[in-house]
Amino acid sequence: MALGFGMKMELQQFLDALASSPEKIEFETTMAVIEDNYDFTPAAFTNGNTQN
């Protein structure tokens, strides 16, 4: 059974599944966990001659 997008997963559940059976985690589930647990704050940066 794949751990798919229809299953909302808490961060610790995701980490446990990642440690025990990573092949069962679907990409959409990974993206949903990131979306639910990551706060993005835009920030300017310079890398060599490249600026954002």
From TrEMBL:
<dbReference type="InterPro" id="IPR038604">
    <property type="entry name" value="HopJ_sf"/>
</dbReference>
<dbReference type="Pfam" id="PF08888">
    <property type="entry name" value="HopJ"/>
</dbReference>
<protein>
    <submittedName>
        <fullName>Type III effector</fullName>
    </submittedName>
</protein>
<dbReference type="InterPro" id="IPR014984">
    <property type="entry name" value="HopJ"/>
</dbReference>
